[in-house]
Sequence to fold (319 residues):
Amino acid sequence: MKILVISSNLEQKHFDLIKKAAEVYKAEAVFYKSEKEVPEYDYDADIIYGFAPSISKVSRKLKWLCVPWAGVDSLMVPGYFANEECLVTNSAGAYGVSIAEHMIAAALVMFRRLDEFFEETRNGKWLFPREQKSLKNCRVTVLGTGDIGTSFAKRLRAFEPASITGVCRSGKNSSGFFDKVYPVTVLNDVLPETELLAMSLPGTQETAGILSEERIKLLPRGAYVINVGRGSAIDEDALAENLLSGHLAGAALDVFAKEPLPKESPLWKIKNLLITPHVAGNMTVEYTKDRNVEMFLEDLDNYFKGKPLKYLVDKKLGY
Fold:
């Protein structure tokens, strides 16, 4: 049994943990920083932790691919796996802390207009106070109530918003951090009562274009939008138009329909749009790395004991 680990983000302590776990089950663990470094004789791995599209497309021996991030929509295409029975797990649950903090930070920067102050003070200008907005008494809607959306709602609660409404496919969330949770079928009824829309949706056929031009216009004038899920969820042209017209007071996007965002994109020049280059998650936070490996080792134990994998992806749903 061979376990192939492909990662440039993990530290030696993480490699040691994986190697130790492999030894318990008499498996061989081999480590590489990127798929390009993997020699063909290691393409016969039974288990891969990491991103390995080239190997996945040719290896019929691959039984389980553990992806070290939450989104797996790029894998859910015909022909991605030579072995169509290959199990796929993701790391949804490892990124909630990092991305939720990013969402809180983005909201505060927009509401307190910190980006304006930062830009002007770097040029030596002392600005007078200006009208700002507070998360206190704000009506917030969280579109996507998985680990990320729930982690955001949990932290947002400390700011005493007027309401935190969750919207998701099932219309259910048992965390207790939302005042109400509705199914996505009533999204049009929720948007007019939303001052801050925080989006953390997976990339699926159902979520593509979910924030359309019509739905953007349902948001009240002066509303804000944050998106850390998938860029495909938003009509970017309509968002730009409503930011420029002032219908939306601001938006913060960490994800885009095309990444990297093309240099010629008009989004770069919109002053009330905060752009970050898909960095809300990633394995840049120590906790994220630790939790990521913990989850893999948890399912590695399940795998060798013949138990169901806890973080298994439903290929039909795409998450």
Observations:
- The mean pLDDT is 96.
